[in-house]
Amino acid sequence: MDVNQIDVLVCATEAGGARNLVAVLEEFPELFQIKVLSGNGALAIFERSGIPIWRHLPSLGESDAAQILQETKADIVLCGRGIDKDSLERHIIVAARSLGCSTVSIVDEWYDYRANYADESGDLVYLPDVVCCPDEQALKEAVAEGLPAECLRVTGSPALSSLVKKRETYRSNNLSRIDEFDRTYPRPFVTYISEELSDRRPGVSSNDNKSKNISHYDGKDIRNDILQALLEQFPCCTVFEKPHPRSESNVCPPINSENVCWLVIENDELQDLCWCSDFVIGTKSMGLLEAALLGTPTVAYQPDPNGNISCTAVRKGLIPCFHNTDDLKLWFERTRTSANKEYILAPDFARPDAARLVCEVIEEFAS
To answer: From its phi and psi, is residue 112 left (phi > 0), alpha (psi between -120 and 50) or beta?
Structure first.
């Protein structure tokens, strides 16, 4: 080990957090000696990156977290957000604070800033030393939700910065998986990003009608609406449904349809599916923003008139959002696919130096 390397415990429970961490580690591998602690949702992202996983734990207690930190002898913790009450990040941050180890968290969404680090009473029990925000909007919204301004840094999103850089790789290197799909299934290809519609914030019940993040529209109904819209617009097509990483394999059985080949794909990389598809549709997933950056026609479908489900790609003005099947059908009819992707300019949150700025924070607080 290089004597100048920083010992970092890298921790993520979810895929979004893991993407940011991987982007930092891949760009500056020489700076760190790492041990990766992965939850279930982050596992596939770490495995695809080729970064060795030191330990995979579905859950963690605070005493176990302290033992892990003592075992790793980490100088600092780099982690994702901790929106779930059982997130690995939460226990690691509390244990690190008690042991005098600094903590840096990267948020991967533009909502739930306080909920990422608060207990059921709303107290910021799990707040790290530094929260890396993707842009000024995120910083201002985090302050408005009560996060201390002194712990916030605008770094950009390492994951989205990496994705923008990856666009030319996609363009110049045809994916063998796309060739396989084209030989086997009819176009157009539609990637449907299915996801949990319940509110996962600590202290919020799924029966709480006041929650702004709860949809009262069943996921099965959304699938059926998409199916009907496709049947009316295309004589045949293929849907690649990508379930949320936490979803059980039997939650989303394929839909039987004579004209729509509906496949549930768990193992393929979401970004690869978005790249090879002619359309991408979802509810609120960060994958919708990623698809928009890749130049694929993308739409959010939120049919619940009583819900107010956040969707960053919609808030950023990158994609439209529809609330009924008539508008969805009209969008499919009016959206023309092209062999050439129409890239948007890299937004501020995908700044090319995002990974470097996170590294600077790590170096500052590990010293």
So the answer is: left
| Band of residue 340 on the pLDDT scale cut at 50, 70, 90 | low
The phi, psi pair for 9, rounded to 5°, reads -90, 115
Question: Phi and psi at residue 268, in whole multiples of 5°?
Answer: -75, 150
DSSP H or E run through 347: none
Q: Cis peptide before 188, with omega less than 30 degrees from 0?
A: yes
Secondary element (H or E) of residue 115:
none
In 3D space, the residue among 331, 339, 341, 284 whose CA is nearest the CA of residue 163 turns out to be: 341
DSSP H or E stretch at residue 153: strand 152-154
Instruction: Give, in degrees to the nearest 5, the angle at Cα 275 between 274 and 281.
Output: 25
- 79 near 10, Cβ under 8 Å? yes
- Please name every residue paired with 279 in a beta bridge, in sequence order, or none if there are none: 190
pTM score over 0.85: yes
In terms of pLDDT, which residue wins out, 58 or 102?
102
CA dihedral 206, 211, 217, 220 (to 10 degrees): -40
Rounded to an integer, the average pLDDT of 157-165 is: 96
Half-sphere exposure of 101 (CA within 13 A, CB side): 26
Write the single-letter amino acid at 343: Y
Confidence label for 241 from pLDDT (cuts 50, 70 and 90): very high
